[in-house]
Specification:
There is one protein chain. By secondary structure, the protein is an all-alpha fold. The chain has one domain. Helix content is 84%, strand content 0%. The longest helix is centred in the middle third of the chain and has 26 residues. The protein is elongated and about 45 Å long.
Length: 106
């Protein structure tokens, strides 16, 4: 039996989240379920849900280190990177719950 991939789960979650933005709770929940099912498991679904936030926050952190002064860049980037991960985990709680359910259904 073929397992899904984290990349396809991420793409489905992003696509359906943008498409169903007008449904406050059910849009992210549905996107998480579909993306989690496409990912092929609960752990893969959580990776597909949270991995883009970690990558983006790392890029923000790195860009502030490179562009700004080292000490101020480190402090500002650390706060922004932590805020981005917290935003995705807590604000998109329905997406994370949907990803867990969809991963369990796979």
């Amino acid at each position: 039996m073929r397992k899904g991939s984290v990349f396809s789960g991420m793409m489905w979650m992003i696509f359906l989240s943008v498409l169903l933005f007008w449904l406050p709770l059910f849009g992210p929940l549905l996107a998480g379920i579909v993306g989690g099912k496409k990912s092929g498991g609960v752990l893969r679904a959580l990776m597909a849900c949270i991995l883009p936030a970690i990558i983006l926050s790392g890029l923000v952190w790195f860009s502030f280190l490179v562009i700004g002064l080292p000490l101020q860049g480190f402090v500002v980037a650390s706060v922004l990177a932590g805020s981005l991960v917290a935003y995705v985990v807590f604000h998109n709680f329905a997406l994370v719950c949907g990803a867990i359910v969809g991963g369990a259904l796979a």
